[in-house]
Design goal:
Rossmann fold; binds iron/sulfur cluster; 327 residues; alpha/beta; single chain; four-stranded parallel sheet; binds 1,3-dihydroxyacetonephosphate
């Protein structure tokens, strides 16, 4: 316990010394969330990163999140406590190189279904559909954002597509989010075949079992789940959307269809309500790589700095700014 307190105190002391702000995603470990100045979903964290007044941002999240903070705030030093905390979905699309196809994941026994070969790239997709705007989920690398017209998050995908002056849009890389957007717009959606291995594994059987076990619970799902799951949900929204929904709802019990890290805030902010994960194994191992120790080391050694080359950063920022301008 003393060690834990000492670590917390060290982080606070170093944070002051560096004029640093700690941002953490809703999936971070409980103790990392506790030490953070701001905890949120991808959209909130992007907005916050663009508005902060500080010298250093310590980003507790996966690669694309720290990169987005650096794209939006190039004058600040953006630190990422663990170098290999990557989002596999972000590796499923590339601009012009072969992409990484994850055939299987540890603990994930459904074969990934890819529609395009490994060598098929975003540029190939753009050549196939010339002039069709590209809407890129923020779960992508900076160079993919730089090739895109506008970004979106799980919180605003439908709004972003609706804001376009076009009848069609290419939505990359998450096929599940793209299908959810297609279901909620009149526009034609052309989608990529990427997916999140944490959300994609939820099955219709999981929903039936959870509903049977908790007949009075409301089922809230993240749009990275498969469409067949989303169609059975009572509400579909981003991680922070789930927090808002649960707080405002009269219901007392909720089945949560997202990574289990969100349960910490749900329970903390709603002590009178009950939350059940749709599957107990919905764990994003990369999000959990960041620990209090790595945050302290990051502040002490100023590691690992995330920087994006200007020729990528500027067009990537344009795509992020377009998204942030949509209220
Ligand atoms: P949110 O933007 O909803 O927090 O989602 C980010 C993410 O990576 C979901 O897996
Ligand atoms: Fe990526 Fe899925 Fe982890 Fe989110 S939960 S960071 S989409 S792997």
């Amino acid at each position: 316990m003393t060690d834990f307190r000492e670590l917390q105190e060290e982080i606070l002391r170093l944070k002051d010394k560096r004029r640093a702000v700690i941002l953490a995603h809703n999936y971070q470990r409980d103790d990392v969330q506790d030490i953070a100045d701001f905890v949120g979903d991808s959209l909130e964290l992007s907005r916050t990163a663009s508005e902060l007044k500080c010298d250093v941002i310590v980003f507790c999240g996966v690669n694309f999140m720290a990169e987005s903070a650096s794209i939006l705030s190039p004058e600040k030093t953006v630190l990422w406590p663990v170098k290999d905390a990557i989002c596999p979905m972000a590796g499923m699309i590339t601009v012009d190189r072969p992409r990484r196809l994850w055939k299987t994941f540890p603990g994930y026994d459904r074969k990934a279904e890819y529609s395009f070969p490994e060598a098929f790239t975003l540029r190939d997709m753009k050549a196939k559909y010339p002039g069709v705007p590209v809407v890129t989920y923020v779960n992508t690398t900076a160079d993919v954002k730089a090739e895109s017209d506008v970004c979106c998050t799980s919180a605003n995908g439908v709004k972003v597509v609706e804001s376009l002056d076009a009848d069609r849009a290419i939505c990359v890389p998450d096929r599940n989010l793209a299908r959810w957007i297609a279901r909620n717009t009149e526009k034609e959606i052309i989608y990529w075949d990427g997916f999140c291995h944490v959300h994609d594994k939820v099955t219709a059987e999981d929903v039936v079992t959870a509903r049977k076990e908790h007949p009075d619970a409301v089922f809230i799902a993240h749009p990275e789940c498969r469409l067949e799951i989303l169609e059975t949900a009572d509400h579909v929204t981003s991680t922070s959307g789930m927090l808002r929904y649960a707080k405002a709802s009269d219901a007392r019990e909720f089945i949560i269809g997202t990574e289990i890290g969100l349960l910490y805030r749900l329970r903390k902010e709603n002590p009178d309500k009950l939350f059940y994960p749709i599957r107990k194994d919905m764990i994003c191992p990369n999000m959990k790589r960041i620990t209090l120790q790595s945050v302290a080391r990051s502040l002490k050694e100023m590691t690992y700095e995330v920087k994006v080359a200007e020729d990528i950063r500027i067009p990537a920022k344009r795509a992020l700014d377009r998204m942030l301008a949509i209220k």
